[in-house]
Design goal:
Layout lengths: L2 E7 L3 H12 L4 E5 L14 E2 L7 H21 L6 E10 L4 H8 L7 E3 L1 H7 L8 E11 L2 H14 L3 E4 L2 E7 L2 E7 L3 E9 L3 H9 L7 E10 L8 E5 L3 H9 L14 E13 L5 E10 L8 H15 L9 E9 L6 E4 L6 E5 L4 H16 L5 H6 L5
Parallel strand pairs: 1-2, 1-10, 2-7, 4-12, 10-17
Antiparallel strand pairs: 3-6, 4-6, 5-6, 8-9, 9-10, 11-14, 11-15, 13-14, 16-17
Helix pairs in contact: 1-5, 1-9, 2-9
């Protein structure tokens, strides 16, 4: 049986990028993904690259490196990732103080510009002027999530990597040293295993007796096929409730709730936003729930109606477009930073998951992790290692 240097579990943007970068530095790598056509957080994301939003030295560095990588990735991966930079409009609700928004966003590396209602509607004519008190705008990166992920995987395989469509059912171990994985059909051996399976990372690691401070939300959106409606920008609310939901749901006081079945950790939220891809298709969202059961039953019709009502207030022309509701799990850490590195008290088992802004940071962090994996010290990786917690 072949023994790999690394097994990467999970074929979303994190696993795909990391597999490629590990192969680039000369390691033998097996990428294991459970679905031939993944229905994960990568698949249903907006593909946004918020390179402007760094708030400290580490995130500013990573976002700057990330956008630089995106500008050359199409050439490097030999696939058009549909990377572009477009105007992001952060809408300010009628009951919100624009001065609050200016103050809040002043901490970011690139500060968005305040627009009046008229200026915001000139930039995005689909906006409902009666629903906003103004907006902020900043240039924002965007890629097609499925395309960039597939491009990473194809480049990985050209570099000598191997991919298996298997469901990982457990970890092989000798005492506290991980030696590979078990799947629904066989075993695979490796010197190192890294878990990049998003929200499934928590389930897999906890089943192996390795609790980690990794959480997840149930994210819901509506996907609209290509249509005649044309957006000029990406629209998101200035006050993103999603961040508050993550912070509130990962406090020490709520830790025990995550171990109880079907517990609603925090009330659901909706952030009314929309993006249109180059092919004319749209994604509208997003409703987010913090529920401890990853298989919790969601009332799709009720959720879709709530998303459409929220979108209809801000972007009325999009509210009734024919589309399909989708649901996925989105992993996050307890401090808006990812979980990276070796799990304490174990050998050869690592995590690369919990990214709040994966398309902005993963293209920068994956090569750093790969160099760290072959023994090169990295000051950024050192600051993000799990042991910081």
């Amino acid at each position: 049986m072949k023994t790999y240097d690394w097994i990467v579990v999970g074929g979303g943007i994190t696993g795909a990028a990391l597999s490629y970068e590990l192969a680039k530095v000369g390691l033998t790598v097996l990428l294991v993904e459970q679905d031939a056509s993944p229905q994960n957080a990568t698949r249903y994301s907006y593909g946004g690259i918020a390179y402007w939003s760094g708030t400290d030295a580490v995130t500013r560095q990573l976002y700057a490196e990330g956008i630089s990588r995106h500008r050359i990735l199409s050439q490097e991966l030999e696939t058009n990732t549909q990377f572009r930079e477009l105007d992001l409009l952060l809408t300010i609700d009628l009951d919100e103080d624009p001065h609050w928004a200016i103050a809040f966003y002043s901490k970011f590396a690139i500060q968005p510009q305040l627009l009046s209602v008229a200026e915001a509607c000139a930039l995005e004519p689909l906006l409902n002027p009666a629903a906003i008190a103004g907006a902020l705008t900043v240039k924002h990166g965007n890629v097609r999530p499925e395309i960039i992920t597939s491009a990473y995987i194809r480049a990985f395989m050209r570099a000598g990597g191997h991919k298996q469509i298997e469901q990982v059912t457990g970890l092989l171990s000798q005492n506290r040293r991980i030696t590979g994985i078990t799947s629904n059909s066989q075993q695979y051996c490796s010197s190192n295993v890294v878990i990049c399976a998003g929200a499934d990372s928590r389930t897999l690691l906890q089943a192996a007796g390795m609790p980690v401070k990794l959480y997840f939300t149930h994210a819901e959106l509506i996907e609209i096929p290509a249509c005649d409606v044309q957006m000029r920008s990406q629209v998101m609310p200035a006050k993103m409730k999603w961040f508050d939901l993550e912070a509130e749901s990962s406090t020490a006081a709520k830790e025990q709730l995550w171990h109880e079945p079907d517990r609603e950790i925090s009330p659901p939220i909706i952030d009314a936003g929309a993006v249109q891809f180059i092919d004319g298709s749209l994604r509208l969202g997003q409703l987010s729930r913090a529920i401890s059961n990853p298989n919790a039953k969601i009332d799709a019709a009720k959720s879709e109606a709530a998303i459409r009502a929220s979108i209809g207030r801000i972007l009325p022309e999009l509210a009734n477009l024919s589309g399909k509701w989708h649901h996925c799990l989105v992993a996050f850490g307890c401090d808006r930073l990812p979980l990276i590195g070796t799990i304490p008290s174990y050998e050869n088992i690592h995590v690369f998951s919990g990214f709040s802004s994966p398309f902005a940071t993963v293209p920068a962090l994956a090569p750093r992790f790969a160099r760290w994996a072959i023994g090169q010290d990295d000051e950024v990786i050192n600051q993000l290692l799990i042991k910081r917690r």
